[in-house]
Amino acid sequence: MPVLVASDLDRTLIYSSAALALTMPDARAPRLLCVEVHESRPLSYMTETAAQLLTELGDAAVFVPTTTRTRKQYQRINLPGPQPAFAICANGGHLLVDGVTDTDWHARVLTRLADECAPLGEVQEQLTRTADPVWLRKQRVAEDLFAYLVVERELLPPDWVKEFAAWAENRGWTVSLQGRKLYAVPKPLTKSAAVHEVARRTGAELTLAAGDSLLDADLLLAADRGWRPGHGELAETEWQAPRISALPERGVLAGERILREFLRGARQQCP
After folding, report:
1. Predicted pLDDT of residue 1
2. Has the keyword Hydrolase been applied to this entry (predicted)?
């Protein structure tokens, strides 16, 4: 039976230049491979060693990129290794099969959102009414499913985040602050639901997962084994759960360690 490996991407497997956390002397820094270009500029990286590990993982397991990115944002990433047969975008709102959206899955997601949480428009209105231009840089809607803000983190009042999170919680939404982005995501919109669907289709009997943010918590809890890096929202809150390993590595070297753990777990299951 195949092993399914579902991994968050940003700040888990791939890293912007600001998130690399290269604390070693320059002469000892790892060689990096650019895996994303945006507007003709390099944007995201992994180590060359991580790229080799991911290539090996693609042959040892069903690797499923599992991201909050929109489909357009995901499709500009050029990961090494075999092209994934499945990918999860928009925090579970879209399931891509050979690069194409599964419309039946998306319809099921929309039905759940309509039944179980406040509409996106209500959340947008609250954000527009309460966000302060002093710290707000952009307000965006992703795939007509959830909203996010780009903020000046050092100017963002913690009290505003807490108050908005409490308001959203009462309406069936989750708030997650990741770097300069603050996400408002419907609770029924989860990575884990989409991963369960992929596991059902592939017949996988073991699921491995990794992620760094609050939006990855459900994914980690749904896996048989999971890993979180030493940075990010989950590390900052010291989030722990059974079968979840908290790694000490931070930045791009954490991505390399996570891939080593994935590969070891897949090979132990399928020698």
Report:
1. 73
2. yes
Please give the full DSSP string across 144-201, using - where no structure is assigned: TTEEEEEE-GGGS-HHHHHHHHHHHHTTTEEEEEETTEEEEEETT--HHHHHHHHHHH
Using CA atoms of 13, 14, 18, 22 in order, give the dihedral in degrees to the nearest 10. 60
Residue located via tokens 């996010």: 148
Two structure tokens written together for 234: 């989950």
In the structure encoding, which two tokens stand for residue 82, read together?
Answer: 């075999």
Q: Which two tokens stand for residue 124?
A: 């947008």
Tell me the CA end-to-end span of the chain in Å, nearest whole number. Answer: 12
Cα–Cα nearest to 175, from 130, 221, 225? 130
Distance of CA 120 to the CA centre of its chain: 21
Residue 248 CB burial class (10 angstroms; 0-12, 13-18, ≥19): exposed
Angle at 164 between CA 127 and CA 159, to 5 degrees: 120
CATH of the domain at 81: 3.40.50.1000
pLDDT of residue 271: 55
Final residue in a domain of this structure, among 134, 159, 186: 186
pLDDT tens per residue, range 6-27: 999 999 999 999 999 999 999 9
Residue 180: both structure tokens together: 């300069």
In the chain, % of residues over pLDDT 70:
99
> DSSP alpha helices (H): ranges in 24-91?
48-60, 71-75
Domain count for the chain? 2
